[in-house]
Specification:
The complex is a heterodimer of chains A (225) and B (237).
Chain A: H1 2-23, E1 52-59, H2 67-70, E2 88-98, E3 104-115, E4 120-127, E5 130-131, E6 140-144, E7 151-155, E8 162-167, E9 175-184, E10 199-204, E11 208-209, E12 213-214, E13 217-222
Antiparallel strand pairs in A: 1-2, 1-13, 2-3, 3-4, 4-5, 4-8, 6-7, 7-9, 8-9, 9-10, 10-11, 10-12
Chain B: H1 3-28, E1 33-45, E2 48-53, E3 56-57, E4 66-78, E5 82-95, E6 99-113, E7 118-132, E8 135-139, E9 144-146, E10 149-150, E11 154-155, E12 159-160, E13 166-170, E14 174-184, E15 190-206, E16 209-211, E17 214-216, E18 219-236
Antiparallel strand pairs in B: 1-2, 1-3, 1-18, 4-5, 5-6, 6-7, 7-8, 7-9, 7-10, 9-12, 10-11, 13-14, 14-15, 15-18, 16-17
Classes of the chains: A mainly beta (225), B mainly beta (237).
């Protein structure tokens, strides 16, 4: 490992020294090597077609509401649902893309949400651009929120939403429409606060809406293209 | 700009390239990695055995990518050792240009250990690890017990955290560590954390006994273990 590491330093040095020698000859035009990216980049603005989002953790609605961010795009949640409360744990991985008409869709994704008071485990699986449970595309959107530098992702925007499978003692039907929202409000940094500043929201057609809630633990990461 | 000054600019740029390439490759040459695992229960006792269940293990992640794994179980019963239901495990991780992280959560409800010696309405283990410009960091925020009770010791009502590595003796059985936390990594370029919310160490005495010359105590030896709510996350850059 050490040896491999060392050789990774030595070879670029030799190559670069060669380039320097070439530059010192009397050639009027020297083509510069392409820019080498920095290891840790300041995150560029989040956007849909190339977006990748991953995360997980816990929320405890109704405690710790992220009211400022929930107010940013209420049109995606216009249908009023009863509130869900209690512990919710979750994990997800979503890769975004676009369809032939330029609409933002989920190319690939898995979302798992556990409602502990409800005793329901919801699952969403999206493969090759379609929901594994209904065969339809899942539309999404990304927007900047009320936190400076923060971005939110909504998966399952109206009117199609997405279909989630229900498991657990409390499940009332095998499948139902659902929506998922997460906000990365500390992009490029780990969530160190408790609660927040990252947030999550889960809405299920038959069981209700957690509303957007700061994480009690965990992390949301928009990790770019 | 004349040809001579152009050459100087070129040479300075190339010198910058030497430094840039060397530093860039030196850092980027070390592969980033993320790891995660979660399970709700594990029983290895003379009363019975049940492996890590339901077990979620983070698939390999490379490039600028992410992954998630989850597992569910409706109920688990190892007679006399452990019963529990609504078992869920989730782990996810990602390698990003600005932040690399992993997060895992495991939970179990209606927990009953050793015929009511330890009970809890619910146990949640929640960990996260992250590395970015600011360093490497892990946390077990969100790990709690709901209505935990230990016979002969006491109980907690509601949803409560407990101080890490709280060790409680269980006479005749061994001891239990609540919110057992096992950190890893150097906190600069790597970090990791395992949290076992309930870890029962069953012990038996080996040797010892009395003779007319006196008594020699036995040596406590681990004879089994029960874990409820285990979550692990790790990152390295």
């Amino acid at each position: 490992m050490k040896r491999e590491h060392r050789s990774l330093i030595v070879w670029p040095s030799l190559i670069a020294a060669g380039l320097l020698a070439a530059a010192c000859t009397d050639q009027p035009n020297v083509s510069m090597a392409p820019k080498h990216p920095d290891f840790w980049l300041t995150p560029p603005p989040a956007q849909c077609p190339t977006g990748k989002w991953t995360g997980g953790g816990r929320i405890d609605p109704p405690r710790n509401p992220d009211t400022p961010d929930e107010a940013v795009h209420p049109e995606y949640f216009a249908v009023v649902l009863p509130s869900m409360t209690g512990k919710f744990t979750f994990g997800f991985n979503v890769f975004l893309g676009q369809d032939a008409d330029g609409n933002c869709i989920v190319n690939k994704g898995e979302i798992e949400v556990n409602g502990h008071a409800q005793k329901i485990a919801w699952h969403v699986a999206i493969h090759n651009g379609v929901d594994a449970y209904d065969g339809r595309p899942v539309h999404a959107t990304v927007f900047s929120d009320a936190h400076p530098g923060g971005y939110c992702l909504v998966v399952g925007i109206p009117d199609d939403y997405m279909t989630a499978r229900e498991n657990g003692k409390g499940s009332t039907e095998p499948y139902e429409l659902a929506q998922f929202e997460v906000c990365d409000n500390d992009r490029g940094q780990p969530q160190k606060g408790k609660p927040g500043p990252d947030a999550m929201r889960w809405r299920s057609e038959h069981h209700g809406d957690t509303h957007l809630i700061y994480l009690t633990g965990g992390n949301i990461v928009e990790h770019g293209s | 700009m004349n040809a001579k000054s152009m050459h100087w600019v070129t040479r300075l740029a190339a010198l910058g390239l030497v430094v840039g390439l060397t530093a860039g490759f030196a850092v980027a040459g070390v592969a980033q990695s993320v790891g995660g695992q979660a399970y709700s229960t594990f029983v290895n006792t003379p009363l019975g055995y049940s492996g890590q269940s339901p077990l979620a293990v983070l698939p390999a992640v490379s490039g600028t990518d992410g992954a998630m794994a989850d597992a569910e179980g409706s109920a688990l019963n190892v007679a006399g050792a452990l019963s529990s239901d609504f078992l869920n495990s989730i782990t996810s991780g990602e390698i990003g240009t600005a932040e690399t992280g992993a997060q895992s959560t495991a939970s179990a409800a209606s927990v009953n250990i050793l015929n009511g010696l330890i009970t809890a309405d619910e146990v949640v283990a929640n960990v996260m690890s992250s590395a970015s410009q600011g360093g490497a960091f892990s946390s077990a925020d969100g790990s709690t017990f709901t209505n935990l009770a230990i016979a002969g010791v006491g109980s907690l009502s509601g949803d409560s955290p407990i101080a890490p590595n709280t060790n409680i003796s269980l006479p005749g059985v061994g001891y239990v560590v609540l919110n057992e936390q096992i950190p890893s990594g150097d906190g600069v370029s790597s970090t990791g954390l395992t949290v076992n919310m309930i870890h029962v160490y069953m012990q038996s005495l080996i040797g010892g006994g009395c003779t007319p010359l006196g008594c020699v105590p036995g040596v406590p030896t681990t004879a089994g273990e029960i874990i409820v709510g285990s979550a692990t996350s790790s990152v390295a850059m």
